[in-house]
Each structure stands twice: as structure tokens, then as C-alpha cells.
Amino acid sequence: MGKSIQIKDLTFGYGDQSILKKLNVMIGHRTFLSIIGPNGSGKTTLLKNIARNLTPDQGSIFIDQKELKAYSTSDLAKDMAVVHQNPDAGVDFTVYDVVMMGRHPYIPRFKRETAQDMEIVEQALKATSVFHLQERFVDEISGGEKQRVMIAKALAQEPQVLLLDEPTSFLDIHHQIEILDLLKKLNQEKQITVIAVIHDLNLAARYSDEVMLMHEGKILALGTTEKVMTTTQLQRAYDMNMIIDHNVYTGSLQISPVAVNKKNTVSTISVHVIGGGGIAKEVLQRCYRENFQLSLGVVNKGDSDAELGKKLDVNVVEEEPFCDITDKALEKACMLADYAQYVILTSIPIGRGNLRNLLIAKTQLNEGKTVFLWNTYKEGTPYDYVGGEGINCLNELRALGLREYKSLDDIMDEIQQSQ
Fold this sequence. Notes:
The protein has 15 helices and 18 strands. The protein is of the alpha/beta class. Helix 13 runs parallel beside helix 14 (389-399).
């Protein structure tokens, strides 16, 4: 069960406009593949070429070893079913009639449907939760219900390959999960190859075995979700900053958009942040939204600042928890600070473990670099846990020219205005 799809040198365009540009893809049988990418990247056009709704300008498509154009319409319908984004089954048909259309490739001309056909249709109606609608006309039901009816029709074809263009676009969250659970079950139990265009990145990450990321008519990446859905690749395709984490309940990747990249203003500003204990989170987020080049350290492994930094794809220098900063970690952090144009020191509680972080700021001040202190220390609240040594170090930094602000906005303004 389930068949592979092979695409060789596929090129397609409308008139003088090139849409797909010499694509070469191998989609394994029994795979659940999601095709993602921004609007206009060619996702639906690719799906329509695979479905034979469009004819390539160049190249070939194969189902297993058989070229797509060698199929008769009836034989292709037995191997492949398609659910388009905007279903239109005609107003004069009942839901049952529409789903029974999925059995037409199996019903000889001038013959009626058999008991087996009726049983398959009933199972498809129940699987998509539209059994209770079977006597309704399709123009009497909602867009979401109509979408489920079209999926039921596709299931009634008993395909080896199932193509879907935005299968959840008209569905509420309950039916989104219900349909994708169903598709995953069919993929795993009946071993149907599922290829779906999905705009929701989190749903794609949750249900896919593999992901194809498209951008400007080309395949930017193809492989497992962990390989394809990286910060760097998603930012390149969608032109916006994102945080990638793991959902604590499903274990799948979770993508959170942060901010749209500013057009034609790729920032050359670089900032090294000294933080720890979650104190630097706001600094990291603000700098990230401004597209600054960022580094962070030294912070403890598992520290919330360190975890956020890694999610933001920041270069992070880590040290083992409950240990003093080693010479190796300090040297690495100093090198990152050397590279940066600015250093922002946050109001970290100063203990024996992180006291050496202040040496990073001191070194940069001695070299004439601008170092900011975002001072959020609260009066009367202790932050020096090394017998006054931390306060003495801060005072020494002030004497060397440390620029101290209570407002992070003021620091960001000064950095921007200095460019």
C-alpha cells in the first residue's frame, strides 16, 4: 500500500512567468509529507502538477515507476485522490451522492454501485464525521462541512496517494485536529502516501514525517521536520523572525512568529549580552526584533536566558550550573564581545559563580567600546552575594565609562542613533 512520487526536472509557468523551476524530488511511499512555504512559492501549482490538473512545461512525474501521463483517467483515480482548497461539488447533489462519486472509477459503465461500494462510502462518511449530513444537499452545509465531505469522497476512492491542498482551511480547531488525526491514521494503518499543502506550520510539524519548504518556485529544504523547520530556513522563506521550541504536550516542534523583518534594512549592528537567571530575556527579544546580530554569555546550562538564546538561534556561551566560570568559557565569551559593536550588561544577581562576567564588560571598556548597564536593580533589594566585591566591580566599570540606563528603550535608541 502507498506509492512513491518521483519528480524529475519539473518546470512550469504561466506565459512568461516561471512558477516552478526544475524541481527534482523523491517522495517515499507511505510518507506523510507537508508542503509549506509563503504565498506565491509554488505549493499549490506543484500539487496541481502532481494531480495532473496542470501539465509541466518540462520534466516528468512518476507514481512508483509509471509515468503520470501514461495513466488513463480511471486508473489514475484509483491510485490518486485529490482534495482541492475550494471544493465545488455542485448544488444539485446530496452529501451521499458526492461521496459516492469517489467510487466511480470502480463502477463499470451502465452498472450500479454494489453493496461493497455502499459500505465503503458509509465508512468514509463516518470517518469524516459527516454521516449525519448524507441526505443534505451540499449547498445547504457550511464550508467546513463541505471540506470534510470532499475528504470523504477522496477516501471512498481508496487511493494509494492522497493529495490535499489546505485540508483544514475552512475548519475550526476541533475539526482540524480530527481531520489530521484521520489522515495520520490512514497514513499509518492503510499506508497511504499523504501529500498536503499546509499553511499552519505547527500542524505541519505535528503530523508530518517529512516537510518540503518551498520558496520562489524552488525547494529550499526537504527532509524531516527537525531538519527542515529550522530558524534559519524558516526566516529565509517567510522573511520574519521566529522562535522554534518543542510543544510540551505533543513533543512536536512549535513555531512562534516574533516579528516581520524590516524590508531592505538588514541590520549590521552586533550586540553581546551579559545576563543570567532570566534577566536578559527582554534584552534578547528586543534586539532580536531589531534584527541585531546577537551573542550571549556566560550563562549556566539550562538557564532561561540560555534557553531563549538558543531558541532565537543566538550564539550562546554556557557553563555548567553551580560552577564558577572557567577560563575557557570566559575566553570564548570575551571573543564574542570583541566581535560585537556594543555590550549590554543586565542587572544580574552577582555571586561567586558569575562574578567573572563583569570582567567581560571591563575588558571591552578598556578597549574603548560602548558598554551599557540596563539597571533594574531595586533599591533595598540585595544583589551582591560576594561580600561587596560585586558592587566594587560595578563602581569600577562606572569609572571606566559604563553607560547606565533605567530604561531599555533609551539603550536601544542610543544604539540606533549611533549608526
